[in-house]
Amino acid sequence: MKPRVELDDIRPYEPPRMAWEIEVDRGSKEYAKLTMNELSFGPLPEARAAAMEAISRANRYPARDADPLRKAISAANPGITAANVVVGNGSSEVLVDLLQILDRPGEVVFPWPSFPFYSSATRVVGLTECQVALDERHAVDLDALHAAVGPETRAVILCNPNNPTGTYLPLDRVRSFAGALPERVLLILDEAYYEFVEDPAYAGSHELVLQSTNVVSSRTFSKVHGLAGFRIGFGIAPLGISDYAWRAHVPFSVSIVAQAAAEASMGQTRSITERARFMTQERERLQAAFDETGLEYVPSHTNFILVRTGPAVFERTGVLVREGEALGYPGWSRISIGSAQENDRIMAALT
Ligand SMILES: *Cc1c(COP(=O)(O)O)cnc(C)c1O
Q: Which atom of ligand 1 is nearest to the CA of 223?
């Protein structure tokens, strides 16, 4: 077998340092795992019940193109129809489906540091990447991003808010960036942390999607919905794009259980909003503590905070955080916001 040369310097995804790896050092299993921006709480009771019910139907393939879930998503985003919604095995798969429909050869432009998967996915599907540095405040530099778009550019991926920095762009800035982009270039807005942004000037990208032919917003059930283990995400796309994304899609890639849980969770708007509010309040509490102790951090609009110190500080109180080196921030750490008790342990590590 002769593998494609593009794969030569791609490594399989390497998960963060896990509890078992440092167990030996500490002799304890009591860790707060704050490495992957997961929710520290389980699924909502309604989502759990729907998943349990779906298990008894596991002998059947899931609904064709996830129809009931797509209806629930369109109901939650006024103006869009189920035909605008694409669903994937995590928003990661939605991203791959979108990259698959782009003309070859070609280039994908994205800010950097950002989500590492953009780089590997782009190369695995046979496109080339163009990384554009963040500005000195760790935010996306839209002018530089625009300047990087050339005749070979097929897509721009904008992680908004950006992982790992937690910075965001309000909708009017995204709108003018999208408006200045050639229509042949796809703009993918990765909004995995959508629910954690409090500024009302941020929300509403689905309206931009509907007014465009080349903008897609991608969201996930892995973060505020607490369903990361079920692997389910979705995209909101103009009809010309959703049509093609389904052509590239692996049939039935999202399990019947994941679809049922996601549909139920989508319907619980109030509980989800409450969870998001809890996380943003905890975020303010942690940032206030960082201010007090003089720990440098990037003010966040997500459920994680990038701080300028290594992971060892937090391991003192049994808190596992993501080491910044793997994210393009050597000497920094990315801390996911956890439960109140877990966040207390973050604060205890600082004193
Ligand atoms: C967590 C995260 C996702 C979620 O990916 P899934 O495949 O939906 O679990 C997507 N994009 C970014 C930037 C993330 O941080």
A: 1
How deeply is 150 buried, as exposed, middle or buried, from its count of CB atoms within 10 A (0-12, 13-18, 19+)?
A: exposed
Residue that is last in its domain, among 232, 247, 267: 267
Which residues form the domain of 287? 12-43+270-348
pLDDT of residue 339: 97
Residue 3 lies in a domain: no
Within this chain, do residues 57 and 98 fall inside the same structural domain, yes or no?
Answer: yes
DSSP string, 103-154: -SS-EEEEEESS-HHHHHHHHHTT-EEEEEE--TTSS--HHHHHHH--TTEE
Which atom of ligand 1 approaches the CA of 36 most closely? 1
The pLDDT value given to residue 101: 98
Q: Are residues 160 and 230 in the same domain?
A: yes
Q: Do the Cβ atoms of 25 and 329 come closer than 8 Å?
A: no
Q: State which residues of the chain have pLDDT below 70.
A: 17-29
Best residue among 36, 73, 115, 221 to mutate for probing ligand 1's pocket (most ligand atoms within 8 Å of CB) is 115
User: Is 161 a pocket residue for ligand 1 (Cβ < 6 Å)?
Assistant: no
User: Residue 258 and residue 14: Cα distance in Å, rounded?
Assistant: 24
Domain membership flag for residue 87:
yes
